[in-house]
Specification:
The chain is mostly helical. The protein contains 4 helices and 2 strands. Pfam families: DUF5955.
Length: 104
């Protein structure tokens, strides 16, 4: 079932939605790996805030695809050049892609 919300498709799902499970795992992994990355990272706070926003959206039950993608862009901009985080970031990207593209 889909729900439209101000030009962004909101995904209505159950607790067992495999997309939600995959994204929760990916976000959790990146969050852990970012916490363990001790080198200076200028935009660490942005990445942490957006990961928290993704987690909150998943808990709320209806993440908006456009908002997920926006968070992903901010996270990628903040940590994308850190090779130690590349695999975890790619996992988040793949999990967001499972939700499809936002509607215009």
């Amino acid at each position: 079932m889909r729900k439209e919300a101000v030009g962004h498709r909101a995904v209505v799902h159950g607790q067992d939605d495999p997309r939600v499970i995959a994204l929760r795992r990916a976000v959790s992994r990146l969050h852990r790996e970012l916490a363990g990355y001790r080198a200076q990272l200028a935009d660490r706070q942005i990445a942490e805030e957006e990961l928290a926003a993704m987690e909150a959206a998943l808990r709320a039950g209806a993440p908006e695809v456009g908002r997920l993608r926006h968070s992903l862009l901010l996270i990628a901009g903040a940590v994308g050049s850190v090779s130690a985080l590349a695999e975890a970031l790619a996992e988040v990207c793949k999990a967001v892609e499972l939700f499809g593209a936002p509607t215009p």
